[in-house]
Amino acid sequence: KNEVEQSPQNLTAQEGEFITINCSYSVGISALHWLQQHPGGGIVSLFMLSSGKKKHGRLIATINIQEKHSSLHITASHPRDSAVYICAVGGSQGNLIFGKGTKLSVKP
Amino acid sequence: EAQVTQNPRYLITVTGKKLTVTCSQNMNHEYMSWYRQDPGLGLRQIYYSMNVEVTDKGDVPEGYKVSRKEKRNFPLILESPSPNQTSLYFCASSLRFIQGDIATNEKLFFGSGTQLSVL
What CA–CA distance (Å, rounded) separates A89 from B29? Predict the structure, then answer.
């Protein structure tokens, strides 16, 4: 069993839809990161969470430490949001474990 | 501009020929790390460093070496590359902070990646 599970693996949405990507983990963590990787490969950090909720523009990330679960929400999705979204959990020792990613495609 | 600089962007080599991929950051970050990304396997951590002269193995360290002689640089060395090391490699850095009694990474900054092919 993978230590970090993301769902769904693939997601197709129409422009304007509300999108949710989920991340569940089975290990103790000090922080959870949400990353975005566009075609072409570059990786950008969207959020670092250790508790609660964070918002940046149309993106919202939440984490429930007790349930070992995090969600990434995109409101009013746009074709430029098409990318792979990756969840990564960090231990206090500096190690990072990644989910396999969710490939999002937003159609105009 | 705050950035992580990774070179080269593309590299084709032959089995057994030693190579180094360089990584440098200008943000005075304590933490630096190397990852490889393979289709179907996602990103996996190779090595990481919490500070100068401190390095630790990640999930897939076999066949790789690293060193952290200066805070800004964290090169990845393949002493005898093999075809199974063909992959897309990323370097990243971040600050570390203490929350309660737990140390953790702040926001991660990634290099632009190195596509390595070992023939």
Answer: 19
CB A69 within 8 A of CB A23: yes
Tell which wins on pLDDT, B24 or A29.
Answer: B24
Q: Mind giving me the DSSP string for chain B?
A: ---EEEE-SEEEE-TT--EEEEEEESS--SEEEEEEEETTTEEEEEEEEEETTEEEE-S--TT-EE--SSSSB--EEESS--GGG-EEEEEEEE-EEEETTEEEE-S-EE---EEEEE-
Considering only alpha carbons, which residue of chain B is nearest residue A6? Answer: B42
Tally C-beta pairs within 8 A across A and B.
Answer: 74
Shortest Cα distance, chain B CAs vs residue A78, angstroms: 24
Q: Are B44 and A96 in contact (CB under 8 A)?
A: no
**Around A5, how many Cα atoms within 13 Å sit in the side-chain half-sphere?**
8
* DSSP 8-state symbol, B27: S
Distance CA(A31)–CA(A87), nearest Å, equals 11
Q: Do B106 and A48 touch (CB under 8 A)?
A: yes
**What pLDDT does B106 receive?**
85
pLDDT in tens, A69-93: 999 999 999 999 999 999 999 877 7
Contacts of B33 in chain A (CB under 8 A): 94, 96
